[in-house]
Each structure stands twice: as C-alpha cells, then as structure tokens.
Write a structure and sequence with these properties.
mainly alpha
Length: 234
C-alpha cells in the first residue's frame, strides 16, 4: 500500500526497491568472494589434515560458506536489523521441535524401507563416514552443525523471505517453497535418486515447520537430526 509520500512521489517506491536490490546484490557479491577466498585458503590445509578425500569437498565448502555467512551478517547488522530478526528466528513454541523431529523420523523410515525394497545403498555416505578421529570430528561437525546452519539460513531463511517479499498469497508461498526445495535437493545428487526425492520432501517439511513456527531454529534442529539419522544408516 502506498503512503501519502509515495502517492505524491511514485518514483520513491522504485528507488526503495532499487536500493534493496543493490543491497542484496552487494551482499551476495561479498558472500561469494569471501566463500571462494576461504575455500581456496582452506583446501590445501585440510587436504593435509584429513585422510578422507570424499570428506574434503563438503567440509571445505561448509566451513567457507559459514565464514561468508557470518561476515555478511556482520556487515549488514545495522542495515538489515539482523539482531531483531535473529531473536524472532530463535524463539518459538517448543512443541514445534517435537513435531518437526517426528516428521523427519517418519520420512527417514519411509525412504529407508524404499531403498531396502529396491536394493539401493548409499556408497557415498559410506565413503564419507570413514577416517581417523580428527577426520570424523570434522565430518560430524560439518553434517550436524555447519550444514544445517548454512543450508537452513540460505534456503529456509533468505530464499523463503525473498520469495515471499516479491508477492503475497499462498500460491507464491508454495511456488517459493517448491523452487527453493528443488534447489536444495539438486545440491545433493551424490546420494542417488531416491534420496534426492526424499531430500526434496524433507526440505518441504522444513519449510512448512519454518513457516508455522516462525522460527529458523526449528528446521535447523530438524535438519541436524535428519543428518544424524543418515550418518547412522550406512
């Protein structure tokens, strides 16, 4: 809805939209540059430290993504009022945590049964979850902490908010959910087609509990739980 100022000066609306767009593009550029530089610096160090080649790529990518996210949030702390948003994202009705975990468990049991019936294994996960104690510590920290934080902030945080800001209504909400969850699933094609389908449905569940609870901490916890179940199902 236009304010009195906007009605008299309609160009103000477009200027505000352009300013928000430029802010988004600028922060995205900062995020990308920091992530790439961090990954380049970390790669040789972790290659020498970890004795599992399969683990190097996800560990490096999630550490560099987390560093880039933190720096980007710090840069935009005042401009985007990050502090108040973080408070709203963390606080919620604790019943949603239980609901989200039950949903994850049901979906995990279903995909496990389907994979058993079809004789489909998870060789990539089996390759990932091996190595010495240092390697396993990095792997578990990545899949239980960094990956849930990074992916939920990006897909159930930024992506959902951007989609909902473009237009309102339940059609746009569900379209945003489908697109963001599709992107999330396509980032995990190393698991096999049944698991990718499972991850898409799981991502939709994360988006639903995110919207219902109005908290980003709920899908983060649910994501971590799903990763834990997946790591144990080798």
């Amino acid at each position: 809805m236009y304010t009195d100022v906007d009605q008299r000066f309609p160009n103000v609306v477009y200027l505000m939209m352009a300013k928000k767009l430029l802010t988004f593009v600028g922060l995205s550029l900062v995020f990308f540059i920091v992530a790439v530089v961090t990954a380049v610096l970390l790669m040789p160090q972790l290659k020498n430290l970890l004795n599992n080649d399969t683990a190097i790529s996800p560990v490096v990518s999630h550490i560099s993504t987390f560093v880039a996210l933190v720096l980007t949030l710090l840069i935009s702390w005042r401009r985007l009022n990050v502090k108040s948003q973080l408070k709203s994202y963390i606080s919620c009705d604790f019943r949603y945590y239980g609901i989200s975990l039950v949903g994850v468990l049901i979906l995990f049991i279903l995909v496990t049964l389907v994979n058993k019936l079809l004789g489909i294994g998870n060789p990539w996960v089996a390759d990932l979850m091996r190595g010495n104690q240092i390697t396993l510590a990095f792997i578990y920290f990545t899949i239980l902490v960094l990956a849930p934080l990074n992916e939920e902030i990006i897909f159930r945080g930024f992506a959902l908010n951007i989609g909902n800001a473009i237009s309102g209504g339940w059609i746009s909400v569900w379209l945003t959910i489908v697109i963001s969850c599709g992107g999330f699933a396509l980032l995990h094609t190393q698991y096999g087609y049944t698991t990718v389908i499972y991850l898409f449905v799981l991502a939709v569940w994360f988006a639903i509990v995110r919207i219902k609870s109005q908290s980003l901490s709920v899908p983060i916890v649910a994501h971590s739980f799903a990763s834990l179940l997946g790591s144990l199902n080798i």
